[in-house]
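Task 17 of the worksheet. Students: predict the tertiary structure of the chain below and write it out as structure tokens. Keep your answer in the requested format; marks are given for formatting as well as content.
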Amino acid sequence: MIGQSSRFETPCTEWHTLDDRYYDAFTVYSEAVIGLMRLTGSAYAQAYERAENAKLAYQQAEDLMRCHEEEHCRPESRTTSTSA
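Model answer:
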């Protein structure tokens, strides 16, 4: 299709779900980091820990999406897959 990446054929429903999770996790992480700028002391330390947890969730979501892409969504993997 014009305007879309040639990297994928039409992404499956699971890919869209993983993409939504990735976007949500990235948004939470970004907002947590931005929030750190307004804090000091123990409030900063607590918010920093929340930001680190959000970063881990974002990285996990990214890893899941990439793994799914490599195993399922790339056109070259479809030609070697034994399942639909």
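Marker's comment: Confidence is low (pLDDT under 50) at residues 1-6, 77-84. The helical segments are 13-36, 41-73, 75-80.
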